[in-house]
């Protein structure tokens, strides 16, 4: 490349590989990154799905005590993700990136998860011991979750590619959900009825080991920052994000919907199957149907990310999920029909679960344009605080409501309790789906608009480097890839002419990205 190396803010591929080879390499890198979601979903979703049932029906806590314990975990989540973000930023200053953090925290997190499921076998039923084990697990998980999610903004800067990465992430998460539906959930049910605590402990150990291996391999095989046209530096990052920014507030509201409301269906399936339908053996089948529906949803929504914006697809998925929830409520007298309803719910919710992460990566770019600084780690950490804290609040609320209605574990429930379970398991996610549809109508960040935003950020960075004495990137050098590309700028990338750059600058309308 003539005139010396490009400024450090830009990364260009200089090898001689053909464009299709570069695309395959980039796609493989995105898959390697997304594979970490298998391990994360295996332990965190496993705990989220079964921990309340484990506390009430295996360890003998009242629903009120179990709900209070989950609220205690909520308070921990409010702190852990922010502390993890601060630690990530400090280590990035020391030259240790996101991938180093993921690999370093894998072992303590996996061991903490194994301890949670070994506690019944160890006879540890004191509430202080349960609270300590839960806090250790969630704290160790935060140290992995923050850098792994923030890494998504560095894997690719292309809006369409981010949609595909979101789909790959959910694909691996759904594969983990399949393991949870076929192995962990039946074991938790069996342990409750047969006191099979040893098998539960062994399962927790195996799941913890799988998590450790998965996260270390993810860190080794993914790559942070290769091919990104807009790169930040650690000194630009921070956790004091602009809370008044409309995009930040919209993402916080979306996190509340996807953390508190939408997952309530899966959280209450054990109660619905055991006490409303009175068919406990139906629960694994419902979870399987939910999982297979998610698989189908991942395939469709991911395939459509190149044609439709992520916000439009999320609204479509919310609509499909709402229809499935309504049909599930209507089909409660016919348990056989619930399998199909659960599959439709999973199909719709796949969009609601997968696409917010791609929207969040785009939101980092929007905030960078508006405020002149990339709050990458801070925005991902803040979103995680909202999602996980609201998730813990949801579990706590379910426990409190059931206790207030007179829920007694292992017995036939009164009509009021059954009605409460239905309202919690179907009403809350229905509100979440409908609210997500309304919220997505306020987003206006399509693929073309985001491509212009990225180009504008690149030009701003070039001007800043030129003013500081660094060589700006010329229009004759390789520029941003097509907005329909795979998110990597490499051999075969398009050069931006002076006229094209001026056109991009004139059409820049990033401040109107979110009208929320």
Automatic annotation (TrEMBL):
<dbReference type="Pfam" id="PF13347">
    <property type="entry name" value="MFS_2"/>
</dbReference>
<feature type="transmembrane region" description="Helical">
    <location>
        <begin position="248"/>
        <end position="270"/>
    </location>
</feature>
<feature type="transmembrane region" description="Helical">
    <location>
        <begin position="61"/>
        <end position="88"/>
    </location>
</feature>
<dbReference type="GO" id="GO:0015293">
    <property type="term" value="F:symporter activity"/>
</dbReference>
<protein>
    <submittedName>
        <fullName>Glycoside/pentoside/hexuronide:cation symporter, GPH family</fullName>
    </submittedName>
</protein>
<feature type="transmembrane region" description="Helical">
    <location>
        <begin position="421"/>
        <end position="440"/>
    </location>
</feature>
<keyword id="KW-0812">Transmembrane</keyword>
<feature type="transmembrane region" description="Helical">
    <location>
        <begin position="100"/>
        <end position="121"/>
    </location>
</feature>
<feature type="transmembrane region" description="Helical">
    <location>
        <begin position="127"/>
        <end position="146"/>
    </location>
</feature>
<feature type="transmembrane region" description="Helical">
    <location>
        <begin position="380"/>
        <end position="401"/>
    </location>
</feature>
<dbReference type="GO" id="GO:0005886">
    <property type="term" value="C:plasma membrane"/>
</dbReference>
<feature type="transmembrane region" description="Helical">
    <location>
        <begin position="311"/>
        <end position="330"/>
    </location>
</feature>
<feature type="transmembrane region" description="Helical">
    <location>
        <begin position="336"/>
        <end position="360"/>
    </location>
</feature>
<feature type="transmembrane region" description="Helical">
    <location>
        <begin position="200"/>
        <end position="220"/>
    </location>
</feature>
<keyword id="KW-1133">Transmembrane helix</keyword>
<feature type="region of interest" description="Disordered">
    <location>
        <begin position="465"/>
        <end position="493"/>
    </location>
</feature>
<feature type="transmembrane region" description="Helical">
    <location>
        <begin position="167"/>
        <end position="188"/>
    </location>
</feature>
<keyword id="KW-0472">Membrane</keyword>
<dbReference type="GO" id="GO:0008643">
    <property type="term" value="P:carbohydrate transport"/>
</dbReference>
<dbReference type="InterPro" id="IPR036259">
    <property type="entry name" value="MFS_trans_sf"/>
</dbReference>
<comment type="similarity">
    <text>Belongs to the sodium:galactoside symporter (TC 2.A.2) family.</text>
</comment>
<dbReference type="InterPro" id="IPR039672">
    <property type="entry name" value="MFS_2"/>
</dbReference>
<feature type="transmembrane region" description="Helical">
    <location>
        <begin position="282"/>
        <end position="304"/>
    </location>
</feature>
